[in-house]
């Protein structure tokens, strides 16, 4: 996953770059966002304070890219749930997704808590579908909560660290962890050396809760305690 600086101006937007950043401010001043390359799409990362300003203006749609339980527990007020998927699944149709009813020039802000791995995946898919004004919150939902911004529900402080090793050939692809019974998920890009590290902000789990872990090189299901002790690799599969 490559991160670079994305620059645009009102003139450039009018010239056809709205598909990357859109016409959010309309101020005519140059705006600067970092972007992530996700599934060959450039996803702008908007600072959390700027996303809060957009939330106050009420003409921006917010998308929670996590799982159902995570959304039910706490989410940005008025956000909808539209879960992130693997890049290779983007071509598959979604059933009754709330974003289907939105116009393609609608400004959309995606978020997660990791801080922006799931959200950038969901944003990248929306951009690939033709939505023209899509962002992911750079600092994530945790920063939104810490700043006291409008939140429905109460987020759990539970977190679990997983360190793993995959094939270096998997670099830039994703490692996914999920708890199927509660529909909670997390994803993180794999580093150049094949390593990955993710923080699971999952609630309601015990040490024996089964976690599904998937990389391009292996898939396994193991108790949470097994995945948080030492480095996970294909030997557990």
TrEMBL record:
Keyword Zinc set for record: no
Residue ranges of every copy of the Rhodanese domain listed in the record: 56-153
GO molecular function: transferase activity
Keyword Protein transport: no
One Pfam family of this chain: Rhodanese
Domain of life from the UniProt record: Archaea
Signal peptide extent: none
InterPro entries named among the record's database cross-references: Rhodanese-like_dom, Rhodanese-like_dom_sf
The entry's keywords: Transferase
CDD domains from the UniProt entry: RHOD
Protein name per UniProt: Rhodanese-related sulfurtransferase
